[in-house]
Amino acid sequence: MPQYIQITFQQIQPEQQEMLIAQLAAARFDGFEESDQTLQAFIVSDHYDPDLVQEIAAQHHLTFTVQTIAEQNWNSSWESNFDPVIVDDFAGIRADFHEPIQGVEHEIVITPKMSFGTGHHATTHMMVQAMRELSFKEKRVFDFGTGTGILAILAEKLDAGSIVAIDNDDWSISNAAENLDRNQCSRIHLGKAEALPEDQVFDIILANINKNVILDHFESLNNQLANGGILVLSGLLEEDEPDILAKAVQFPLTSMEKKSRNNWICLIFKH
Questions:
Q1: Pick from 26, 22, 31: which is nearest to 2 by CA?
Q2: Using CA atoms, how far apart are residues 228 and 236, in angstroms rounded to an integer?
């Protein structure tokens, strides 16, 4: 059973919150709780790099405290702060302790563990909006950095022919497997990132991660996208857009659409 590190940042200004969360997410922090002038960030202890956190805090002139917490304490706190994600009348994402969501076409029930962060609400909302606009029927789908498995689960509900969902984190894989079972999924192949064959090709690739991971894997994502395929990217802030577009022009990709929500963005490309 993993232990977690809780970092509490003090005296945060509103304009610092989103950038700080994005930087911490890139440093493998998976959960965030925001309140007036404070931010609590959570990370599996094995992933914690104190020097990197100190560097990030110094950039923002912030002080912080460090605390080790047990999984059961984290889960209790996390559940109490998890709100459903509802995307119009299309999809609702809730925890099993919430009441069923009425009036949506698709409902996904998850266990909201560490792999679902505050910023993830906005980016998940946009990814689900983008998925609503695409045809998934019989398509080959790749969920790159699946986390809780939400996007893969929705792809199956949208009649995708086959879905591959990967993550590099054992905790996320375990959480996703639990959620796939909870939603009675049968067409999703879930595994670690290194297990994916490089020559496998997909019609739709979904990547809701962060800028650095996307940039590092952009070439392989392009190579695994079929001609005419769609690449949907999020986990990105407004200020990340120039770097992503500069990378995209190196490949045969056409920018199709941009979505924005609370300073987070979703970019859609066609091969």
A1: 31
A2: 24
Domain range annotation of the chain: 4-79, 118-270
Exposed (0-12), middle (13-18) or buried (19+): which is 230, by Cβ within 10 Å? buried
List pLDDT tens digits, range 117-159. Answer: 444 678 889 999 999 999 999 999 999 999 889 999 999 999 9
Rg (CA), the chain: 18
CA 232 to chain centre: 12
Pairing assessment for the beta strands 31-35 and 38-44 based on DSSP bridges: antiparallel
Distances from the Cα of 27 to the Cα of 48, 119, 128, 213, angstroms? 8, 14, 25, 11
The torsion defined by the Cα of 132, 137, 142 and 146, in degrees rounded to 10, comes to: 50
Edge-to-edge strand order for the sheet containing 254-261?
A: 188-192, 162-167, 140-144, 202-208, 225-237, 264-270, 254-261
Q: Which amino acid is at 5?
A: I
**Domain 4-79 classified CATH 3.30.70.790?**
yes
Superfamily of domain covering 118-270: Vaccinia Virus protein VP39 (3.40.50.150)
Measured CA angle at 270 (ends 269, 271), to 5 deg: 125
Burial class for 167, CB neighbours closer than 10 Å (0-12, 13-18, 19+): buried
CA distance 141 to 181: 19
pTM for the full predicted model: 0.80
Report d(CA 43, CA 249) in Å as an integer.
34
